[in-house]
């Protein structure tokens, strides 16, 4: 995302996330007592206990509205602690459970819409404010860069677990919003060129996954240092292959620029190398803007998406529906860097197209800019057009 580096705001904020109280598991001389019944609205953190259908579970990391009965596989958020039924703080359900699945059902690759937020600039809105007004369920948080070599850090400066980014993530999760960190972007000191081997780069990605117990990771591969660099492209792909092997449930996303008719030379190479290296990428997300002043942003976005679909079909042997299910759209609300105009009406049409084709990811740059300022130009804290606050986020949430 190009605008991301133009108006960087310095500063750090202490971590302010609020953790739920630990729910102790009671004991019984006969069978383990049932912990308090799981609640979809309750926030649970690592070590919190809950019961469902006569089984005790303990949380591995932060979770909300993820049923233990269907989210207790090897790579999922809950640990199955076994049957319960002794006297305890709550009464187990009176209806006998059906046989629960041993692994969670597949949800495919489709994700909740996750608009980009940059906590470092552009007057970032409070997550609870945006969630309450729009119903958005996820944010993509920008950007993780390199610090002192191959070490991941927000903006390349503030580490991972401290500062304004970590504080914002804690607030988002407290508001029921999942997060997808974005690694890279248009400018800055990036991990791809700084990590000398795929193994080192995968290790940097793993630090990010472990720090926030991620379900997804977005690699925003741009500019001549990564996107237009064959060595670094391959390093990133091989690193994501390692990540996927170690974290099978974590979705891997590649985000990159495009032409109005689909991937350019470097985008085509990226997709074909993903196949050649068996990188097992879940989602290929294109950024259909900055075409050089294109007037029809709906037509250009559809053309770019159809071009990527055709490339995925020929490269991987997918059907139309399989190819669409591996594609994402990442637009730019209001005025793009090159003054291309995407109105709320146009964005609604793009969203409806994405839904109709079964695309897996739908996002835009950025929530910071999702406020009206007609005639305001291309700036960090508003869209440059007349609009209601959070209109693009609300449209996206309908994906």
From TrEMBL:
Keyword tags: Hydrolase, Signal
Domain Chitin-binding type-3: 35-81
Classification via CDD domains: ChiC_BD, GH18_PF-ChiA-like
Composition skew (Pro residues), residue ranges: 90-104
Coiled coil location: none
Signal peptide from the UniProt entry: 1-21
Protein name: Carbohydrate binding protein
Natural source organism: Paractinoplanes brasiliensis
